[in-house]
């Protein structure tokens, strides 16, 4: 939790570290002034005595930095401990997750195959299924013969339509 | 007359900080001054090790810190001992006395 917080408060932390260290340097400088040194010289001496401020700040940041690897290892350890401590609950959770993920991927692969993937033909969106219907007969003939298609195409005179025959829509789907 | 200064023993800085802070809330500069004064200038803590140690102790929950006004009127970060830190200090102190006693015994052995 500490590491998480400090991730967001990095700037605030930096400012705090800086003002903490600056306070120390000022105190040192005041000591030198009390000893009778000129203020500027005292300040220079204090900074010198304090040493590498950036280096110290970097070390302080290290104290707060989350060790990503450590955190991962700790999480894994606690996960295993939890599983061993209550195996029934863990099994329930794992089973639920497995079923949910399995069902989801099954449904998705079905939808993908039926709806999303284009059929394996050029200009698959131009495919048509042709039915014929005779209102005079009681049970209309739904399937169109080769010659029937040819006459329809002839009638339409559309150069955009090229006919290719497939025995039935079901067979067409199965090919995909 | 120059005073002979001694290096701090590894691991003793944390204990010294806890002990000084146990005397009352104090900022980093105050801690380094007190260590110098109380040890009669024999021990001197480098800022480069003092501040990382302070923040480590704070992170472990042995020290609590808050910003307050120093006697010069400037904002400073004051550290004080937590209950956990008090326990830690007690155990480190007794450990130290045991160790120092043992080392003393060995050094006093006459040939």
- Main sheet overview of chain A: none
Order of helices and strands of chain B: HEHHEEH
Q: Going across the major beta sheet of chain B, what is the strand order?
A: 1-3-2
The CATH architecture of chain B can be given as Orthogonal Bundle
Specify the number of helices of chain B. Answer: 4
- How many domains is the backbone of chain B divided into? 1
How many independent structural domains of chain A? 3
CATH topology of chain B: Arc Repressor Mutant, subunit A
Task: Work out the number of β strands of chain A.
Answer: 0
Helix fraction bin of chain B: 40-55%
Relative strand content of chain B: 5-15%
Low-confidence stretches of chain B: none
Q: pLDDT under 50 segments of chain A (min length 5)?
A: 170-176
Average pLDDT over all residues of chain A: 76
What class do helices, strands and sheet pairing of chain B give?
alpha+beta
Q: Give the beta-strand count of chain B.
A: 3
Radius of gyration of chain A: 39 Å
Task: Describe the overall structure.
The complex is a heterodimer of chains A (176) and B (111). Chain A is mostly helical. Chain A folds into 3 domains: 65 residues; 41 residues; 52 residues, no CATH class. Helices cover 69% and strands 0% of the residues of chain A. Chain A contains 8 helices and no strands. In chain A, helix 2 packs across helix 3. Chain A is elongated. The C terminus of chain A is likely disordered. Chain B has 111 residues and is an alpha+beta fold. Chain B has a single domain, classed as Arc Repressor Mutant, subunit A, CATH 1.10.10.10. Chain B has a 3-stranded antiparallel β-sheet with strand order 1-3-2. The longest helix of chain B has 25 residues. Chain B starts with 11 loop residues before the first helix and ends with a helix. Chains A and B meet through helix 2 and helix 4 of A and helix 2, helix 3 and strand 3 of B.
């Amino acid at each position: 939790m500490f590491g998480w917080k400090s991730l967001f408060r990095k700037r605030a932390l930096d400012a705090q570290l800086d003002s903490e260290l600056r306070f120390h340097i000022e105190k040192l400088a005041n000591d030198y002034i009390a000893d009778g040194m000129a203020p500027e010289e005292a300040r220079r001496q204090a900074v010198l005595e304090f040493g590498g401020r950036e280096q110290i700040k970097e070390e302080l940041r290290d104290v707060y930095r989350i060790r990503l690897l450590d955190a991962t290892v700790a999480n894994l350890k606690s996960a295993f401990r939890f599983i061993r401590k209550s195996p029934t609950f863990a099994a329930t959770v794992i089973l639920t997750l497995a079923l949910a993920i399995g069902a989801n991927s099954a449904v998705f692969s079905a939808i993908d195959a039926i709806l999303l993937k284009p059929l394996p033909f050029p200009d698959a969106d131009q495919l048509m299924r042709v039915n014929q219907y005779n209102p005079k007969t009681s049970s209309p003939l739904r399937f169109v013969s080769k010659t029937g298609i040819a006459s329809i195409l002839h009638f339409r005179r559309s150069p955009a339509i090229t006919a290719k025959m497939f025995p039935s829509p079901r067979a067409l789907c199965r090919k995909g | 007359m120059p005073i002979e200064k001694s290096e701090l023993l590894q691991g003793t800085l944390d204990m010294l900080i806890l002990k000084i802070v146990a005397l009352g809330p104090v900022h980093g500069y105050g801690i380094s001054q007190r260590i110098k004064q109380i040890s009669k200038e024999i021990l001197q803590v480098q800022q480069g090790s003092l501040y990382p140690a302070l923040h480590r102790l704070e992170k472990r929950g042995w020290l609590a810190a808050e910003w307050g006004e120093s006697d010069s009127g400037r904002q400073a970060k004051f550290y004080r001992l937590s209950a956990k830190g008090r326990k830690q200090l007690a155990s480190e102190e007794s450990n130290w006395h045991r160790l120092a006693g043992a080392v003393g015994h060995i050094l006093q052995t006459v040939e």
